[in-house]
Amino acid sequence: MNYLKSKVALVTGATSGIGKSIALLYASHGAKVMVSGRNQESGLQVVQQIQDNGGEAAFFKADVSDPEQCRLLIQATVSTFGGLDVACNNAGVSGVLSTLVDYPIDTWQEVVNTNLNSVFYCLKYELEVMNKQNSGVIINMSSIYGLTGTMNTSAYVASKHAIVGLTKSAALENAAKGIRINTVCPGWIETPILNPLSDDQIKALDNLHPVLRIGKPEEVAELVLWLSSDKASFVTGSNYSVDGGYLAK
Q: What are the extents of the domains in the chain?
């Protein structure tokens, strides 16, 4: 079944990990996908993989912490594919491990700009398009740490909490216009960011989750796909965890 047949979809942070899995799944369900990220080589590889599987995709290099690049990204999506039906604002960085009192100010600014401000910028320009269409779906990527706290990652936790609130406000403002906006909150997921970890460190992460393993990017993508489709037509302003039971503890 093609949940997104003939839809135009945009995914930020789509060059690897969760974003890549979302872009590939969107395309497999019939969407024309604008793949975006800072790594052009990896982005073009994702586009090629989509095209090799019979899908339609393009790449636009953008640093979404820059509002002008966000504006140009949405503009390029519309000019390339003729509209914008679905957007997943997924780009993000983790920052450093540090107590708040020692947290570097420049790193704080980088994390907040990339994780939070980018979502505001993308929402602003995505909604300009969707308001004209009176339709659209937006998924903002938060984290389990957007719903709970943890030590030594204050910038990440703060930015991910803020995404949940921003999504609720945006959803309320646009619900009567036929636009749905939701948040997805993954637990620890098997992505390249975990590559430097040892087997013992991965095992410790596994044990944080009641299912005794970390998740796969494809498992997050399946939830994002459902929320992006008409199957979730009565769902807006909500946040959904995909976390192996982490938040149930």
A: 8-189+216-248
> Is 156 a catalytic site residue?
yes
| Residue 140: band (very low, low, confident or very high) from pLDDT cuts 50, 70, 90 | very high
Residue matched to tokens 């003939």 = 6
pLDDT digits (tens, 9 = 90+) for 165-205: 999 999 999 999 999 999 999 999 998 888 888 999 999 99
Residues contacting 173, CB < 8 A, separation 6+ = none
- Region of 170 please: left (phi>0), alpha (psi -120 to 50) or beta: alpha
In the CATH scheme, what architecture does the domain 8-189+216-248 have?
A: 3-Layer(aba) Sandwich (3.40)
Look at residues 4, 176, 160 and name the one whose alpha carbon lies nearest to residue 95. Answer: 160
pTM of the model as a whole = 0.96
Residue of 103, 145, 156, 246 marked catalytic: 156
Give the whole-angstrom CA distance, residue 213 versus residue 203.
8
